[in-house]
Amino acid sequence: MNSRDAILGGLRQKLNRSADDGAGAQAVAERLAAHRRNLIPQRGQLDRAGRTDLFEDYAAGADATVARVASAGDVPAAVADFLKAHNLPATAVRAPDADLDAIPWDSQPTLTLEARKAEEPDAVSVTAAFGAVAETGTLVLVSGDDSPTTLNFLPENHIVVLWADRISGDYEAQWSALRERYGDGALPRTVNLVTGPSRSADIEQTIQLGAHGPRRLHIVIVDERP
Q: Which fold has domain 42-222?
């Protein structure tokens, strides 16, 4: 008997179940198939405009900065403005995402973006969010060939393009959207829930930004999808 068998055997004994008892496995399978929703806070149950405003308020409260633009054509200028405001170079890496491909980056001639994963010493990354949760100001970022996870955590400055129609009131709606896009039981390898820039208060309970990821998180909310 290995350690795993010993632990599971102890649990079965406490629950008065035998190793070949299929009732527990069936109950687990039924629970997973049902996708039952948990308690949903009322504050996020708003119309699209209300959800967008609520998301911005909570994201800003978590030390992210937010810019709102009307269309994809306005995104390059918003990115350039952020870089200028923080005296950052007009070069960045971006996700090879289809939504980002549709943005007219050449409208900003001084802005140079390279579609690839982030590496040292990349200072700025641009990605597209799968979605967002209004009730906490949280971004939903998924991994994949078109969205390398290094872009979310390696550069000190992370710019996220978020389409307003992807902002839901609650987390349960985002998990439903993930299952709808990828198929039940076939989720991305990684789903990151990000609220504000990286931070830590491990040293003398003093907040330090950029402890385990980006020092700055800038979110560009786009009202109209390309």
A: Rossmann fold (3.40.50)
